[in-house]
């Protein structure tokens, strides 16, 4: 099955967050066709979480994007430093930021996450 382009996925994700009443913003636009997508969740209490693409072993033929926690319960500065490293490695990635005290993100997580 063909995977949904990154730009379409991010657009739909931002719309979903908006419909659910979450503040979400695109912080970094990546490659439209296949850029890796990262989602930072700011818990608005001095902590943040970061989700990124799940390891390849969890991907199946459905074409769905699965995510895995990269950092959880970290400081927003820790998340920013991690993203700076990721950007040096992959300048075509996408970064979406969600603000939610409950930590909601609406991502499909890989099994076990």
Automatic annotation (TrEMBL):
It comes from the Bacteria. Gene3D superfamilies: Protein of unknown function (DUF1491). It holds the Pfam family DUF1491. This is DUF1491 family protein. It comes from Microvirga terrestris.
């Amino acid at each position: 099955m063909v995977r949904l382009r990154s730009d379409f996925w991010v657009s739909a994700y931002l719309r979903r967050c908006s419909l659910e009443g979450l503040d979400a913003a695109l912080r970094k636009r990546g490659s439209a066709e296949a850029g890796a997508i990262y989602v930072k969740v700011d818990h608005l209490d001095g902590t943040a979480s970061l989700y990124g693409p799940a390891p390849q072993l969890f991907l199946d033929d459905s074409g769905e994007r699965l995510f895995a926690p990269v950092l959880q319960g970290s400081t927003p500065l820790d998340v920013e430093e991690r993203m700076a490293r990721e950007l040096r490695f992959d300048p075509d990635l996408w970064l979406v930021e969600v603000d939610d005290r409950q930590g909601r993100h609406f991502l499909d997580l890989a099994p076990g996450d």
